[in-house]
Amino acid sequence: MLYFRGCVVREKLPGISHATEKILNLAGIDYTLLDNESCCGSFLMRTGFKKDAEEVMKENFQAILASDEKTVLVSCAGCYNTLKNDYKSLFDVELNVIHTSELIKDLIDGNRIQVKPIEKTVTYHDPCHLGRHSGIYEEPRDIIKTSTELVEMVRNRERSRCCGAGSGVKSAFPELALDVADKRIQDAEETNAEILVTTCSFCILNLKNAVETRENRNKKGSDIKVMDITELVLLGIEQ
Description:
With 239 residues, the chain is of the alpha/beta class. It folds into 2 domains: 2-103, Rossmann fold (3-Layer(aba) Sandwich), CATH 3.40.50; 115-238, Rossmann fold (3-Layer(aba) Sandwich). 49% of the residues lie in helices and 10% in strands. It has helices at 7-11, 14-26, 42-46, 50-66, 77-91, 100-109, 138-145, 169-172, 174-189, 201-213, 229-238; strands at residues 2-4, 72-74, 97-99, 121-124, 149-150, 195-198, 225-228. It has a 4-stranded parallel β-sheet with strand order 5-4-6-7, with helices on both faces.
């Protein structure tokens, strides 16, 4: 198995890769990392730089093939959608790509990892790339419900509100991205959840930024904690 971490995880959210690798090691799964992992190409593709995106994608695809691994595991919903769906439509190739939520559900179902109960209330945010684009809705919820109480936001699954970070909005219009994230944080707060879990590094980065900068932006502060699904699972394993 090749674990493809993704740009945001590598550069800004290393806690996600640490949690993922700990879970893989505990489950006894052999995996490799790309020494010179590059971008999957999603950001360039979503912002209209198709030619540049295809060049990056070709290099990345060749590196994945050279690794000689049959399965590609990803943390980021954007990487998942790009590697699994865009590569197939652009290059007529089909990679065996799985998201961490799919793998962890299988590990729990197969008793390869044991997750203890967590005395927290959790709500789940469906990332656009994993939900609407790829149809993965239940696996993350099944994982959450094995260890804690899941409370749904009113807007969930196909009707989930976007986190505000995708398609270059976070880079080009940072204040707009935070304003959209604020609305999603408010959705989560209305459930009285203590933890907001999601499965996309872009979503986590923007939602965390929104929580951390609320008071600086003259908005009411929030105590909700934003976590990746792997970080929640590791919390249940290690407590």
